[in-house]
Description:
Layout: H1 3-25, H2 30-35, H3 41-71, H4 73-97, H5 102-121
Helix pairs in contact: 1-3, 1-5, 3-4, 4-5
Amino acid sequence: MNTIAQIFVVLAGVFHLAVFAMESLLFLKPSTYKRFGVPNEAEAKIAKPWAYNQGFYNLFLALGALGGLVAGGDKGHAISLFACACMAGAGVVLVASNRRMVRAAAMQAGPPIIALVLAAVL
């Protein structure tokens, strides 16, 4: 995998690590739950188990993307690209489920899509 694609894999992985932290570790902070469209603390407490679980999905995707790069070689890069494909797919599902989430979906899916395209064409 070329260096430019690897940079976008890293960006995708770091973004998903940050989302893990927000969803699984910081979710009950007002600035965090409001970012996810949760209007108040009572609803945040109800959503917390969902957010906690979802955060770990993001952690595992990040570890796949970054761990594949660390492992290197064809197999490691395949793992990274598979994780990126999953991230991209999740971004598409996000915007398909709620058109108002287009910005969040672009942040989630943009870097992994770019990584996939660059890995395929360069």
